[in-house]
Automatic annotation (TrEMBL):
This is Methyltransferase domain-containing protein. InterPro entries: SAM-dependent_MTases_sf. GO terms for biological process: methylation. It comes from Dokdonella immobilis. The lineage of its organism: Bacteria, Pseudomonadati, Pseudomonadota, Gammaproteobacteria, Lysobacterales. It holds the Pfam family Methyltransf_23.
Amino acid sequence: MNWKLKGMLQRALSHLPYGSWMHFHLQRRFGGLRDFNREFDVKLSDWTIMLRRLGEAGFDISGKRLFEIGSGWYPTFPLACYLGGAARVTTVDLNRHMRPGLLRACAERLGENLSTLCAATGADEASVRARHSKLIEVLGHGGDLASATSGVIDYRAPADATRTGLEDGQIDCIFSNSVLEHVPLAVIGAMFAEARRILDTDGVMFHSVNCGDHYAYVDRSINQLNYLRFSDEQWNRWNNAFLYQNRLRAHVFIEQAEAAGFEILLNTAKASDLRLSQLASMPVHPQFSAIPAERLCITSIDFIARKSVNSEAAAGIIEDQNLNPGA
């Protein structure tokens, strides 16, 4: 499908009274939700990568209090964390996207991958299977996510990740998967400031960001750097509420985390030969000219950040900036 056509269609739907309903059904029939098993498998793979990276940083989700930004259509990450032994998983979304049918499909598909869950978490297989059995039973009788997980998963939507309402130090790990690329820059800063507040003393956050042009997944005539051809004004013709892309480069997310008082433990951002070649062969809008090619071409990043010992000093700087944005 031509990417410009998709962008204009989504932009038009975003202004219609039942646009969200129509967009969901178009996704089920023609979009990413058409092949549920394939999409689920990608998400589960991403979850196992997150667990591995957190493990390498010395963090184990067992018995921990987790917080997900961006619940999405179905809760792969929260359910996998619940089955793997997390004590609590709060998951929030700006809009209420989750669907009962997809929730049940997700739970059932997880049942086919319990060995993967056990391998990733080190959890006892008998305990994982017992939790999964109850999950399927309660969902099958029309129960909601909270009741099906004995209150472990708390789904909040609509909810604002910059104002969670949680007390200070209530969370051990905050995470997101392919979410931050859809959030305006100012909101990312506010999210990180709130993350620092609600994280416990040794708390960490993990974010996986796909900062490439998402239209390249539906239009094979373009690559993931295509949107760098346009100015902000030009890009707004195709940017829309259903697929908002901030076009921020990978290093910006690191800079925002550090400014909010975090120490970076992991940063996977790396320029590839393919992306450098693609960038060299295309025109780039002058507004990106100050960014070195080695940074501009990066289209994905995973990073882990820990509260810095100097985070309280950083807190005052961030709060001053929020109160006086022109300062």
